[in-house]
Each structure stands twice: as structure tokens, then as C-alpha cells.
Write a structure and sequence with these properties.
about 240 residues; three-stranded antiparallel β-sheet; alpha/beta; 10 strands; three-stranded parallel β-sheet; 2 domains; Rossmann fold; single chain
């Protein structure tokens, strides 16, 4: 359904979907500008409009100076930008990104993850980003649909999902290992005090049943100095390292 309209009977080329496949699949016999222009030319758009649109997109992507090159002369990050520009050229209603960072090294991937988030917001295009990387989910900080074994398990923003994991499968997928069984000691408005093996912990409370809590690694701070903040859940402890 696109804007409440069923598109099952609409041919793929008429649905207004921009697709960026995992391998980018740029046409090797075409220059960068020819790759981006392809979707417009097959739709018989006027040459002047094609040239304007291609120049506009390549400038947005920051690769206009590469327009006469071929894909073999580009880095992985540059190829990705060309693939996205080609998908955006037709003014799609929806942009599909299939593991767009999987073929990039971690450093380039981190930079382009931030850049992609900026571009999508700038152009205001509904985007579906398929990923298996938790770091993508964390840094994009948008609505997440967790699908496992072909079934939709949980929907929500990333940090909302963290605070109310629906089952162990979702927690394992998100690499959340700090999950503890607890007993509720007291309820105080939007907070609850729970007991985890003798340790009292204050957690958010939304009115539901609490039987387990998850402590995200990002929420843990270890310091040699005593904390003088008013933050809850401050504890003294001994740092142990196992060599087993």
C-alpha cells in the first residue's frame, strides 16, 4: 500500500520505487552521469530536464566532478553515492536501501551512514533501510521493524525497543546480553525499584509487568573516582577480569 493505494497490480516500473541493491550494480559501460540518467531516459524525459536533474543530484551527493568517470575508477563510497543518485533520479515515492554499507570498510561505513541519514532527511523521502548491523540501527535512531525468520517481531524506535524487549529472540538479535531477572520492590510514578540478586536498581516504568530488565552497555560508566552527580544507580564495586 502506497498512501493507502494498493500497488500489487501496478508494474514495478510504475510504482515509483527507488532501489539501491547491496552490490550497487552500476552499468560498467556507462559513465557516472549516464548511470544516473538511465531511469529518466527510459521514461522519455526531455534531454534538458535529464541533464538538470543529473547535475542537481550529483552535486547533492558531492560527486559532480566525477561525472565523466566509469564505475571501475571509483571507491566503494563513491559507487554507493552513484547508486543512490540513480535511485533518486526518478523522484521515487519510496527509497529501498538493501544493506547499503555492507561492502564498505568500517571507517567509510560510519561516515556514509551519517551522510545517508542527512540526505534522506534533506530530501524528505520515505526510506526503508534493510540491515543486520546493530550500529546502523543505533545511529539512525528511527522507527525499527525487527524481522526474524520471516516474521515481524517488534516495532518501535530503537531506544523504546531496548526498554521493552518483547522476547529473547529480539534481545539476542540486538546483541543485548545484560538481561537480568528481577523482582519489583516498589512503584513510584514513572519509575520502579527492582531487586536483581540483592542489588536495588531504579528503572523506567510504563505500567506493565516487570520480570526482566536490560542494561545497555552504553548506559554503563566505570570510573575510579566517586561520582558526585545526582544520577540514580550509582554503585561501588570491584572490577574483575577472568583469564579463563
Amino acid at each position: 500500500m502506497f498512501n493507502s493505494e494498493l500497488v500489487d497490480s501496478v508494474p514495478p516500473e510504475g510504482r515509483g520505487v527507488g532501489d539501491v541493491p547491496q552490490e550497487f550494480t552500476l552499468f560498467p559501460h556507462m559513465t557516472i552521469e549516464e548511470n544516473v540518467a538511465y531511469g529518466l531516459k527510459v521514461r522519455n524525459i526531455l534531454h534538458v530536464e535529464v541533464a538538470r536533474r543529473v547535475k542537481e543530484l550529483l552535486e547533492i551527493m558531492g560527486i559532480y566532478e566525477l561525472c565523466k568517470r566509469y564505475h571501475r575508477d571509483l571507491s566503494g563510497g563513491e559507487k554507493q553515492r552513484v547508486a543512490i543518485a540513480r535511485a533518486l533520479a526518478i523522484n521515487p515515492k519510496v527509497l529501498l536501501l538493501d544493506e547499503p554499507l555492507s561492502n564498505l570498510d568500517p571507517r567509510t561505513g560510519k561516515y556514509l551512514r551519517e551522510w545517508l541519514r542527512y540526505i534522506v532527511k534533506k530530501l524528505s523521502i520515505t526510506t526503508i533501510w534493510v540491515t543486520h548491523k546493530v550500529e546502523d540501527i543505533e545511529e539512525l535512531n528511527c522507527k525499527v521493524d525487527v524481522m526474524l525468520d520471516g516474521a515481524l517481531e517488534q516495532v518501535g524506535h530503537y531506544y523504546d525497543i531496548l526498554s521493552s524487549l518483547i522476547n529473547d529472540k529480539v534481545s539476542k538479535f540486538l546483541s543485548l546480553t545484560n538481561i537480568f531477572v528481577c523482582d519489583v520492590v516498589s512503584l513510584k510514578g514513572s519509575f520502579a525499584e527492582v531487586n536483581v540478586n540483592g542489588l536495588r536498581i531504579i528503572v523506567p516504568y510504563n505500567g506493565g509487568k516487570i520480570s526482566k530488565i536490560v542494561i545497555h552497555p552504553h548506559g554503563i560508566v566505570v570510573s575510579k573516582e566517586k561520582s558526585w552527580t545526582f544520577a540514580v544507580n550509582n554503585y561501588n564495586g570491584v572490577f574483575r577480569r577472568s583469564c579463563e
